[in-house]
Amino acid sequence: MQGAIDSTPVVTGHEVAAHEEHQDLRVLGLITFLASEFLMFAGFFAVFLVFRGSHVQWPPEETEVELLLPAVNTLILVSSSWVINLGTKAIKKNDLAGMRKWFGITAAMGAIFLAGQVYEYMNLGYGLKTNLFSNCFYLTTGFHGAHVFIGLLLILGVLWRSRRANHYTDITHTGPEMAEIYWHFVDVVWIVLFSLIYLLTLI
Amino acid sequence: MSNASLDAIAAKSDQPFPGAPNNWRRFFSFSTDHKVIGIQYMVTAFVFFLIGGLLAMVMRGELITPEADLVDRTVYNALFTMHGTIMLFMWTFPMLNGLSNYLVPLMIGARDMAFPRLNAAAFWLVPVFGTLLMVSFFIPGGPSQSGWWAYPPVSLQNPTGNLINGQVLWLLAVALSGVSSIMGAVNFVTTIFRMRAPGMGWFRMPAFCWTVLSAQMIQLFGLPSLTAGAVMLLLDLTAGTSFFDPAKGGDPVLYQHFFWFYSHPAVYVIILPIFGTFSEVFPVYARKPLFGYRFVVVSSLIITVLSAMVWVHHMFASGTPSWMRMLFMFSTMLISVPTGVKVFAWVATVWGGKLRLDTPMLFALGGLVCFLFAGITGVMLGAVPFDIHVNNTYFVVGHFHYVIYGATVMGIYAAIYHWFPKMTGHMYYEGLGKLHFVLTFIGVNLNFFPMHPLGLMGMPRRVASYDPEFAYWNVIASLGGFLLGVSTLPFILNIVSSWVLGKRAPANPWNAIGLEWLIPSPPPVENFEEIPIVVSGPYGYGSDESLVANNPAGELISEHS
Ligand code: HEM
Ligand SMILES: [Cu+2]
Q1: What is the CATH number for B421?
Q2: Which of B:336-395 have CB within 8 Å of A?
Q3: Closest ligand 1 atom to the C-alpha of B148?
Q4: Which end of chain B is more exposed for a tag (fewer CB within 10 A), N or C?
């Protein structure tokens, strides 16, 4: 047989300390997980579309959505994806202060988004149980909001850990990187959600 | 190598890593060693197998007479619901995860899984949701009665009116099981992609690892669907939404789509590692390379893809439009092609080999026979006109028990016996093993064959009483059921006694090829003294080329045994 050794991506384990999480694999693990998580949202969106297709008027009369606030929220969330990216770019240049600044701003933007979401809930005038549309509306936005909240915790966790000297450097920055990937995920889900639940009402 | 030195090696490798409990207590600790976790999974799962089996025997006791006399109808509903749920979510999945956990790192030449702590967390969820499900036996109203599908509107009924009821606990348990499975899947996929030993290109990876990879990818795309469905059902049940409640405009058939979009692929999550086991076991005991290795492993991936496109064959009788029926009948027929490729390859592997009928081989052959039978009934069910006739009858129950008991449980037994010496460092007792096989094989056929004529005669599933004309076959099935209960006794006796007293196992008792056989039994913590450098394919039986370019056991074994 071919005596040569196939070139395979390899972690030989010699350099990896025993029974530790393998740093460099975590990003791949996270992406795998998020791909799967995305499909759960896809399921919720599918339900929304099925009900939309089977109703003459959608959303039904007493459950219209508002557009201005969510549009502003969308702007905030989408631009926060750029901000967090500046943060990881900074740490890759070993600029810890820069990373902390951009991550802090991202966290603030996330918090504003969540506050806006809660404000919207309180002013809509209908609740989860009202009808099938409101079921779908609160389910999807609620689940997304929960993910934003988790993302916020991740960012705050990164900020907390960055207080330790040399915890994040231009070489070791898996934590910030993962927080960024997660944040982009939350962003992408929102764009789909916004298009379906809000923009489609315009058509 | 002399026996004395082997004993010394085995004794030496019994020493666990420093600081960890070095006896049975490590199995009760939050260990991050994939081998400990593997055994934790398997033993836990087996306990649930016994519980699920007891429930089944109560059902068979009820069905031995046509009247509903042994248990009340509502109790019977709870029994089949819990039986199905336990057997799938708490026996088969954890058991196969345990096997894969133990074997995959060894087979690909890694020292552990990619995320050891995630691995441990995923395992410890199993006793948690297991307990949650068991608790439902003791609350007012008892466990869920809506079957392992939990179809609405039946599952939306809440006769007790309590917030904590059997159905809610069921949903929480299933959701947690999903979380645990996703954690496992992320871990397996990352491990197999990134931690293969140098030289182990994709087409040098053992077929078992290919099937685990395929199965875990199914978990990744399938489970979100079940989770989404479960979340909406839970909201309907507790928060007053009406996604699936037809009384309030919801659509119950939508739930069926969510459920089967996962649960059909889930049957491949179950059977694929069994296919992998067949592919590992047959070459060893036939002393021949796996026939058509590349076709076998690629067909696993094809099955993964196709498994996402057949789910509606469980819904042919749910008011499904005819274009959908046609489409899914076609895709169902299509998926039997890659499956057939594999069956052909195994038969060709065994054909003309020098067969050694040890217990693992017997179980694998028995499992293959049952799988063939179940494949035939499966294709029959895939044909719409036939399915409309037997849908919701015992024919379906017969079909899937041949796959799940006949092929899967027997395949699991094959794997356990085959790798038992590796896992424990002891040989099992061959005589007890053969007895176990004979009882199981007879039990399976006695219990599950009669379900086919019953189904064709029109006996519906999930009933506690039936027309006396069905009594004949039901009595036979019940006797088979009790025999299956008895068949676990020699197994338990064998495992426990040989684990404690059995002869010391050498590193490679079966003369098998594979990285796991190059290191001592049981493998030391971290598995490999030196990460193996793989230089040839996995099934070089009958050729004398070496599998590796170094000695991965380092000083533990100075020569290949
Ligand atoms: C050749 C491959 C297979 C085909 C064509 C096939 C086809 C089918 C069809 C059409 C049904 C639906 C019958 C009905 O509800 O009316 C069914 C049910 C079922 N099959 Fe298979 N099957 C195959 C393999 C498997 C395997 C490998 C497993 C498990 C490891 C499996 C497990 C099940 C289960 C659990 C059910 C019944 C679920 C329920 O109704 O509770 N099947 N099969
Ligand atoms: Cu199916």
Answers
A1: 1.20.210.10
A2: none
A3: 41
A4: N
Radius of gyration of chain B (CA): 23
Q: Would you say residue B537 lies in a domain?
A: no
Domain assignment present for residue B99? The answer is no
Distance from CA of A25 to the nearest CA of B (A): 7
Which helix or strand (DSSP H or E) is residue B537 part of?
A: none
Residue B541 maps to a domain? no
Contact yes or no for B200 and A33 at CB 8 A: no
Closest CA to B14 of B417, B498, B420, B425: B425
Distance CA B265, CA B281 (A): 24
- The pTM (predicted TM-score) of the whole model is 0.92
The string of pLDDT tens digits covering residues B115-140 is 999 999 999 999 999 999 999 999 99
Q: Check CB contact of B536 with chain A, cutoff 8 Å.
A: yes
* Interior/surface letters B472-511, b for 16+ CB within 10 angstroms, e for the rest: ebbebbbbbbbbbbebbebbeebbeebeeebebbbbbbbe
Q: Which of B254, B222, B221 is nearest to B236 (CA)?
A: B254
CA distance A171 to A174: 9
| Ligand 1 pocket member B378 (CB < 6 A) | yes
The verdict on the CB of residue B267 being under 6 Å from ligand 1 is yes
Distance from CA of B9 to the nearest CA of A (A): 22
Smallest CA separation from ligand 1 atom 42, residue: B400
Distance, in angstroms, between B196 CA and closest chain A CA? 6
Q: Which domains does chain A have, with CATH numbers?
A: 25-202 (1.20.120.80)
Per the DSSP assignment, residues forming a β-bridge with B548 are B534
| Alpha carbon distance A70, A194 (integer Å) | 8
Whether B273 lines ligand 1, by a CB cut-off of 6 Å, is no
Question: Letter for the amino acid at B297?
Answer: V
Residue B272: both structure tokens together? 């694929």
| Distance in Å, CA B382 to ligand 1 centroid | 8
Burial of A57 (0-12, 13-18, 19+ CB in 10 A): exposed
> Which are the contacts of B344, defined by CB distance < 8 A and separation ≥ 6?
B292
Reading the block at residue B310, the tokens are 């057949």
Q: Domain span at residue B128? A: 3-13+27-94+104-153+162-195+207-518
Using N-to-C axis directions, what is the helix angle for B34-63 and B93-108, rounded to 10°? 150
Mutate to test the pocket of ligand 1, among B400, B404, B444 (most ligand atoms within 8 A of CB): B400
- Write the pLDDT tens digit of every residue in B374-422: 999 999 999 999 999 999 999 999 999 999 999 999 999 999 999 999 9
Determine which of B113, B193, B526 to mutate to test the interface with A (most A C-beta atoms within 10 Å).
Answer: B193
Evaluate whether B448 touches B477 at the Cβ level (below 8 Å): yes
Q: What is the ipTM of this complex?
A: 0.90
What are the two backbone dihedrals, phi and then psi, of residue B226, each rounded to the nearest 5 degrees? -65, -40
- Do residues B172 and B133 lie in contact, with contact meaning Cβ atoms separated by under 8 Å? no
User: In this structure, is residue B450 part of a structural domain?
Assistant: yes
Q: Give the count of domains, chain B.
A: 1
Nearest to B166, CA basis, from B156, B176, B151: B156
Instruction: Give how far Cα B375 sits from Cα of B298, B328, B386, B399, Å.
Output: 20, 17, 15, 8
Distance from C-alpha of B182 to C-alpha of B222, rounded to nearest angstrom: 10
Closest ligand to Cα B311: 2
Selection from B134, B166, B128 nearest residue B150 by Cα: B166
Q: What average pLDDT does this structure show over B463-491?
A: 97
Considering every ligand atom, which ligand is closest to the CA of B328? 1
